[in-house]
Each structure stands twice: as structure tokens, then as C-alpha cells.
Amino acid sequence: MAATDPNNEAPIKDWRVKIVGYRDQQANPSDWFVDTPFVRDVAAVQAQLSAPNMQASGGGDETESLLDALFKLAMMEQAGARDAEDAGRWRERGTSIRAIIFLTDATFKTPMTIPEAAGGGVEDVKRIRLTLCSTPLPSARGIESNFGRGYGKTSTLSAAQALRSRASSVARGKRRRAASST
Question: How many Å apart are CA 29 and CA 114, to the nearest integer?
Fold first, then answer.
């Protein structure tokens, strides 16, 4: 996170990242979702990305379980306001920006098939407040056209652009709330 804003300061000062892999849940029920802990340094992110279980393999059919993976990530537990930071849980909602950056070379399948979301589809994932950043590949365009301007936000901006934009939006909201409470 070395990029700087116009004041020569890093726009994101406190960050955590987790790398998650997903495949076709029906074709690989035991290992379709690869989860890792949240980490804070670039070397740890690179290690997660280069892990053998993160390599593309298998498949053969076009659609993958992206919606299931987004649902599973969005519904992941969060820490409470007074809890110590936990590498396996989101920070408390409202204390940080939650963004999912997904890279894909395949379209998503519907309906969802994981037990907690079986039968669900795009509308169920749209109800979850997320910032989604996708690759500008034809396979990701299905997400953009389906999600559009629902509760979530999708973008083919670079991850850094999307996070800076979301951070600015959160900061404006905090300033407005502070001004209205005085």
C-alpha cells in the first residue's frame, strides 16, 4: 500500500487481506472453497496466492460457484466492537471497508448450491452490502450486468481505485454524521 494521495499520505493506513479460492461446488464438494486467514503484509498475501491449493485445476465446465463463494464470504462471522482482532473474522461492520476483489475466467452458476444458500441466486447476493471489484474480462461482465446498482457495487476499476473511492465515500459519510450531531 505504497501509493499516496495528494497530501503524500497513504490513503489506506490499516489494511488486512485474505485470499480465497473457489471452484465448482457440485464438481468438488470437499475442496471447492479454499479459505485463508486475514493477513497484513505483502509477503503473506503472496504466499497465500502461490499456495498449491490456490492453483486453477480440474473443471471442464464453464460455470463456477462464484455466487456461493460471495455469499459464504459475506456471511462470514465478524468480530464484536470489544473483541480482539481475529484473522478468521471480518472486523465489526462500520469500522472498516469490506471489499471483495474477484478474479475469474468463468461465468457464475445459478442457483447457489451450498446448504446455507441452496436455491438462491443473484438477488440474494445483491442484498448483501459489498463492494465488488471484478476483472475486465468478458466472464466478469455477467456479474456487472446482473448486480448493476443494487445494494452492492460492482466495478472494473483497479482494486486500488475502488478502495480509494469507497474510503472517500465512507469518510464523507462520517463527516456528515459528525456535522449533523453538533
Answer: 9
Domain-embedded: residue 8:
no
CA distance 98 to 95: 9
- Residue 3 in domain: no
Residues 91-115: pLDDT tens digits? 888 888 888 888 787 888 899 999 9
Structural domain boundaries enclosing 29: 21-180
Nearest Cα residue to 13 out of 28, 24, 1: 1
Q: Label residue 151 exposed, middle or buried (CB < 10 Å: 0-12, 13-18, 19+).
A: exposed
pTM listed for this prediction: 0.71
The CA-to-CA distance between both ends of the chain, in Å, stands at 34
**Residue 129: HSE in the Cβ half-sphere, 13 Å Cα cutoff:** 6
Contact 89, 134 (CB under 8 A): no
Residue 28, in any domain of the structure: yes
